[in-house]
Amino acid sequence: MKSAASNSAHLTRNAAEEMPAGELKRKLLLAESENRALRVKLGLDPTAPDIHLGHTVVLQKLREFQDAGHKVVLIVGDQTARVGDPSGRSETRPVLTGAEILANAQTYEAQAALILDQDPARYELRFNSEWLDMSMDDLLGLVRTTTVAQLLEREDFANRYKSGEPISILELLYPLMQGYDSVAVQSDVELGGTDQTFNILLGRDIQRHYGVPEQAVLTMPILPGIDGVDKMSKTKGNEIAITAAPDEMFGRTMRLPDEAMESWFHLLAVAAPPQGTAPREAKASLAKALVERFHGEEAASAAEAQFNSQFVAHEVPDDVELFSIAADGEQVHLPSVLAEAFGISRSEARRLLEQGGVKVDGAQIAPEALDISCEALEGAIVQIGRRRFKKFKIVR
């Protein structure tokens, strides 16, 4: 069995920060002396239908804790999702309906199972509505733990307050609600992205107020999206869902800028190719490894072959014409867009769809897919027939 010191070094090796320094090692030693597993918490708000690769950076770290013998407590934030995490936001988030939250929560539970060990000795799934649907007395007790001045220390709140942007009372409650999650599940360790640092540290203060031992904090770096710039997010349209079809997952990974590859290899725990490997080959090895992780070896090989037949075998010209689409909503009507982009009629576009003659980044579009999300088209190579291509750009 590994010592607490070696376990701590392994678990913190690719983390952004451990707070307080040395606290995880102390927790590991204490758990060892008490002959128990640590309770390691992660909260995810079901604000979108899919878990994406950005979420897996922290989920993979949770799996490492499980493999070291500890118990993961995954909290689906069905109650906090009603507020919306304001971290990193310059404006108030839109509020989801109860039905949307419930539907998303169900998919999160199923998708997390692709990464985490479901053994009850190593895994506990909780919904924070269990304890956050609280009485007024309990709510007043929670808000007494924190001052407005403390909350305004957060950079995003401070910037919005300074610029006169509105901050709702509901948003100010969010960090307190997340902190109370740690009290409710008695977490020893909380994980999160670096954008969660304030919330997680506030959780320590709230635990102390309720007389609960304070958790160690481990933050993980943020995975950039396929644009290589912004945090991976469905809102930005730069995400890859872990349930994406193999061809889509491979193709979207191949859009990643070369300069962002190193962070993807590191944060997604994919073995990097030997030094000197050409960027396109390195990116293909990354794409194949990710497809294999979620779909298996056979699907990964098929996705690579499909991509190569489209792009490496020069079936796609190097100078594909850029076509800009003006879009107001989240989706566009594909026959209309194809008609405008390629100078064909809408009926011909529908016929091409019915015959399987439309591809996006090499993946065939289903005949019934008359509407398609803008994020799926952003930066994509769209092909109709055998030799007609356009690269699409969404303009808001």
UniProtKB/TrEMBL annotation:
GO cellular component: cytosol
One annotated GO molecular function: RNA binding
Tagged with keyword Metal-binding: no
EC number: 6.1.1.1
Top-level class of the enzyme under EC nomenclature: ligase
GO biological process per UniProt: tyrosyl-tRNA aminoacylation
Catalytic activities: tRNA(Tyr) + L-tyrosine + ATP = L-tyrosyl-tRNA(Tyr) + AMP + diphosphate + H(+)
Pfam families listed in its UniProt record: S4, tRNA-synt_1b
Keyword terms of this UniProt record: Aminoacyl-tRNA synthetase, ATP-binding, Ligase, Nucleotide-binding, Protein biosynthesis
Residues covered by the RNA-binding S4 domain: 332-395
Protein name as catalogued: tyrosine--tRNA ligase
Organism: freshwater metagenome
